Each structure stands twice: as structure tokens, then as C-alpha cells.
């Protein structure tokens, strides 16, 4: 177990009923690295991402994030609620649909993790929330309700909410797919700045130009398997596997 | 024949009527509270992944939803003691029945409210590292409650109406007191009219409240 590896998956498998969605996936993400996960719809990208913070509990395999590891290869029993919660607290996750808490203000959304999960005093959590909102460019929206924000603003609040837990890694599941095209840029800019700060990130995306420019590595998945993996520019511009080539050919007009 | 209305005589029974009102409201509040507590348990058990618990609780709900309260009351008071040897006072039998009857409906309302909360909210709370209880308390219940309150108030209106059935066990609720007054005064028309008016005066504000809560936009 190397300290330079922040995420380590070995032989992760997941089935829903008889449908095998993840077939023996092994993957590592170095500390501070940005890895883009690409692949056709239904290939298991979301399931893989959700397995990394145990929102989906795999059937077998080994998962480590930072200092927290879980081994599913021997145990049949589900991990306990407390252990799952402690594990998840170390990873931040951003969803396609934002999933902000509608009954709380923007600021309360960002404070929620620290206050409820970490027991941070309210005043301290508020200070942190305001700093993070400023960082994503939304300091003036602190007192608003999420439903009064645009999609791009909602997603930036969701990023601030995840960052408030000071996670070891950030997971993004198609963070810009639900946005109007003109709002995609503001969210990608925030992700880009996190990359520049050295945050370890794994992101599922259909923004190939962004993946090529911001990610260090690209992982291409199909039918629950990692088909090709390598340097971001290399995989996107000169994919070696025919399936990767076929998949990327749909995007090439967008790759300036 | 022209009937001579005369409500004046009812004044002499005002203590009796007061007791009736107290019993009716008291039983409603008591069984609404106990019904809600048991209902919460019922909802949580039905939402749990414990197969046996889900099965038992579902059977319980269906039994209470698919038989009349009056039958449940009578069964609990006359039949249950024969089965268990446990003598119940009319008030205890009434409390027990209305609690369980209320719980079977409250439980379904609570469960419905909880499952109406978007799964993305559960994901978001879990992803922050919340434990089940925190997720419920901070994320799910605050959103579910808004949707649950109007049907819960409606169910409580029904619960209050159902307390009139307690009169068959000689629990001195409003209707039972009315029956006493009638047999003493031979004036059922005024007496039962007054009883109806009192029920109406209690329930009308409640149904208005439920209506107002339902009409609130955005939830
Ligand atoms: N909770 C679930 N229950 C059943 N099937 C699921 C569930 N989640 C995902 N799947 C199935 O797993 C497959 C992969 O889904 P997903 O991981 O969402 O793919 P992707 O994100 O790459 O589009 C799909 O066929 C999907 O229908
Ligand atoms: Mg997906």
C-alpha cells in the first residue's frame, strides 16, 4: 500500500440481480491526480463511482480511500451504518442532479456536513461555509434557497457542500450533464481550480476536451470493464482500443 | 304537528356534557399521540429490510384497515379477554383499539411521506457521511413532514369521529352522554342536534387547517 495512491480498488464486482454491472474492476488514483472516467451510457461508470464511497456496496473486492479501507472479498455481512458513514465522510461527491437540501439555505447546505457529521461549532462552520461559497463565486447567495439558483449555481453550491467535509478525494458524476450549455463553463472552472490546488479527483464526464486538458489520466469503461487506461491526451487523441476509438469518434467535432 | 324546540333544558346537563367533551377530546389526543408513536414504529419497520418484520407489520396494518373500528372495539372488549384471560376496562379496550387503528393509518401516511422524498436526497446525506438517524432527522423527515401533515390532520379528524363509537362500551364520551340525557329528558331532537353541533364546532377548524396546509404551494 503506497502513500502516493489515494484511491485503490482491487477486483471490485457488483451485480444488480442477475445483471453484472462491474466485472472485476481494479483501479488506482494517485494523490493529487485527476482521473476522468469515460464510456458509453450504461457501462457502469456511476456504479463504480458510487462504489468508491459505498453508496453502492460492492459484492466483492477491496476498496481503499486514504486511510480507510474495506474488504468485501471475504465478508458476507454488510458493513455497519457507523463504518459506512465514517468511510463516506472522507470522500466528497457531486451528483448530476445537484441534490441540494431544498429546506435549507445555501449556507446551511454547506454547513450541514461539518455541523451534523463532524460536530463543528456553528460559528466555525458558518465561517468555513462563507469561505467556500466565496471560493466558488457565490458569497452573495449564502442566504438564498437552492430553488432560486440557476443550475450552474446549484452545482457550485453542491461542490462547496462536499468540500466543507475537507475530503481526501472528490468524486464527480456527470456534474455538468444536467446544465444548459452556457452554464457548463462556470462549473468546469471550479473543478479546474480544484485540480490546480492538488485535490485528488475522479470524474465521470462527457466533456472530452475538458478531460483531455484537465485530467492526468483517462479510464475508458465499457460493459462493466476497464477497456483502456492511460495518459489523458494519449487516450483521447490516439486511443489504442477499437472500442475507445468508436466511442470517441462521436465527440471529435467537439474536440477543438 | 308543530314541534316546539326548546334547548333551554340542556343547561341543567352542562356538567354531563362537559365530561363528554373532555372524554371525546381527551381520547382523541391520547390516541392520536399513541397512534402516531406506534405509527412511526410501523412505518420504520415496513421500511426496514427485515423481511419478517415487514411481513408482520403489513399483516397488522391490513387487519386494522380492513375491519370496522366498531368490530375491533367490540372484539377487543368482549373477545380478547376470553382469549387471554385479561380483563380490560372499557376505557383501556377503547384506548388500545383506537391506538392500533390510528397507527395502521398514521403508519401508512408516515411511510408514504418518507418514500416521497427524492432518492437523491438520501444519496446526498449519505455522501456527506451521515448516519441513518442523522439522515432521517436532518434531511428526510423535515421534507417528509410537510407532505405528511395535511393527511395526518385529516386522519385525526376521523380519529375524533371514531371516538363516538366508544359509547357502545359505555365510555362516557359526548355521544354516550347524549344518550343519557335523552333517556332522562325524552328530547332526542335537541340533544342529538346539540351533540352534532359540538362535534362540528370542534372539527370544522381542524378540517379548515388541513385544507390550508394542503393548499400551501411548493411542497
Ligand atoms: N440500483 C440499480 N438497480 C438495478 N440496476 C441498476 C442500478 N443502478 C444501475 N443499474 C444498471 O447498471 C448498469 C450500469 O449503470 P450505471 O452505473 O448508471 O452506468 P453509467 O453511469 O455508465 O451510465 C445499467 O444497466 C443500469 O441499468
Ligand atoms: Mg451514470
UniProtKB/TrEMBL annotation, chain A:
Signal peptide: none annotated. It is a peripheral membrane protein. It comes from the Bacteria. Keywords: ATP-binding, Cell membrane, Membrane, Nucleotide-binding, Transport. It is found in: Cell membrane. Residues 7-248 form the ABC transporter domain. The keyword DNA-binding does not apply. PANTHER family: AMINO ACID IMPORT ATP-BINDING PROTEIN, L-CYSTINE IMPORT ATP-BINDING PROTEIN TCYN. Belongs to the ABC transporter superfamily. This is Polar amino acid transport system ATP-binding protein. It comes from Novispirillum itersonii (Aquaspirillum itersonii). The lineage of its organism: Bacteria, Pseudomonadati, Pseudomonadota, Alphaproteobacteria, Rhodospirillales.
From TrEMBL, chain B:
Its main location: membrane. It holds the Pfam family BPD_transp_1. One of its GO terms (biological process) is amino acid transport. InterPro entries: AA_ABC_transptr_permease_3TM, ArtM/GltK/GlnP/TcyL/YhdX-like, MetI-like, MetI-like_sf. SUPFAM superfamilies: MetI-like (SSF161098). One of its GO terms (molecular function) is transmembrane transporter activity. This is Polar amino acid transport system permease protein. The keyword Transmembrane helix applies. It comes from Novispirillum itersonii (Aquaspirillum itersonii). It comes from the Bacteria. It is a multi-pass membrane protein. It is found in: Cell inner membrane; Cell membrane. PROSITE patterns: ABC_TM1. Keywords: Amino-acid transport, Cell membrane, Membrane, Transmembrane, Transmembrane helix, Transport. Part of the binding-protein-dependent transport system for glutamine; probably responsible for the translocation of the substrate across the membrane.
Amino acid at each position: 500500500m503506497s502513500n502516493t495512491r489515494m484511491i485503490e480498488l482491487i477486483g471490485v464486482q457488483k451485480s444488480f440481480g442477475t445483471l453484472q454491472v462491474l466485472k472485476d474492476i481494479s483501479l488506482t488514483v494517485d494523490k493529487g491526480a485527476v482521473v476522468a472516467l469515460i464510456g458509453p451510457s450504461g457501462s457502469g461508470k456511476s456504479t463504480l463511482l458510487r462504489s468508491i464511497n459505498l453508496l453502492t456496496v460492492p459484492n466483492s473486492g477491496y476498496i481503499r480511500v486514504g486511510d480507510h479501507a474495506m474488504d468485501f472479498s471475504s465478508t458476507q455481512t454488510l458493513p455497519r451504518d457507523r463504518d459506512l458513514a465514517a468511510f463516506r465522510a472522507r470522500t466528497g461527491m457531486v451528483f448530476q442532479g445537484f441534490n441540494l437540501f431544498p429546506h435549507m439555505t445555501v449556507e446551511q447546505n454547506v454547513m450541514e456536513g461539518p455541523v451534523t457529521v463532524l460536530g463543528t461549532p456553528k460559528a466555525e462552520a458558518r465561517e468555513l461555509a462563507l469561505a467556500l461559497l466565496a471560493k466558488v463565486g457565490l458569497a452573495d447567495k449564502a442566504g438564498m434557497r437552492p430553488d432560486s439558483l440557476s443550475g450552474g449555481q446549484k452545482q457550485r453550491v453542491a461542490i462547496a457542500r462536499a468540500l466543507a467535509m475537507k475530503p481526501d478525494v472528490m468524486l464527480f458524476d456527470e456534474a455538468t450533464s444536467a446544465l444548459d450549455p452556457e452554464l457548463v463553463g462556470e462549473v468546469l472552472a471550479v473543478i479546474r481550480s480544484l485540480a490546480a490546488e492538488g485535490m485528488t479527483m475522479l470524474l465521470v464526464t462527457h466533456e472530452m476536451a475538458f478531460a483531455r486538458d484537465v485530467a492526468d489520466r483517462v479510464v475508458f469503461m465499457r460493459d462493466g470493464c476497464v477497456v483502456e487506461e492511460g495518459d489523458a491526451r494519449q487516450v483521447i487523441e490516439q486511443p489504442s482500443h477499437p472500442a475507445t476509438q468508436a466511442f470517441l469518434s462521436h465527440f471529435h467535432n467537439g474536440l477543438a | 304537528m308543530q314541534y316546539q324546540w326548546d334547548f333551554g333544558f340542556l343547561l341543567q346537563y352542562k356538567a354531563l356534557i362537559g365530561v363528554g367533551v373532555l372524554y371525546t377530546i381527551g381520547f382523541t389526543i391520547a390516541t392520536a399521540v399513541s397512534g402516531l408513536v406506534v405509527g412511526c414504529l410501523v412505518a420504520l419497520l415496513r421500511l426496514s429490510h427485515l423481511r419478517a418484520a415487514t411481513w408482520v407489520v403489513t399483516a397488522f396494518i391490513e387487519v386494522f384497515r380492513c375491519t370496522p373500528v366498531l368490530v375491533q372495539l367490540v372484539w377487543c372488549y368482549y373477545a380478547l379477554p376470553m382469549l387471554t384471560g385479561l380483563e380490560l376496562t372499557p376505557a383501556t379496550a377503547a384506548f388500545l383499539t383506537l391506538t392500533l387503528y390510528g397507527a395502521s393509518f398514521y403508519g401508512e401516511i408516515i411511510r408514504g411521506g418518507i418514500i416521497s422524498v427524492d432518492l437523491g436526497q438520501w444519496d446526498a446525506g449519505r455522501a456527506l457521511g451521515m448516519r441513518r438517524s442523522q439522515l432521517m432527522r436532518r434531511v428526510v423527515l423535515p421534507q417528509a413532514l410537510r407532505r405528511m401533515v395535511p393527511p395526518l390532520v385529516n386522519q385525526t379528524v376521523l380519529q375524533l369521529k371514531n371516538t363516538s363509537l366508544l359509547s357502545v362500551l359505555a365510555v362516557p364520551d359526548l355521544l354516550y352522554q347524549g344518550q343519557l340525557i335523552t333517556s332522562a329528558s325524552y328530547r332526542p331532537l335537541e340533544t342529538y342536534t346539540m351533540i352534532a353541533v359540538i362535534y362540528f364546532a370542534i372539527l370544522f377548524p381542524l378540517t379548515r387547517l388541513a385544507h390550508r396546509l394542503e393548499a400551501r404551494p411548493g411542497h
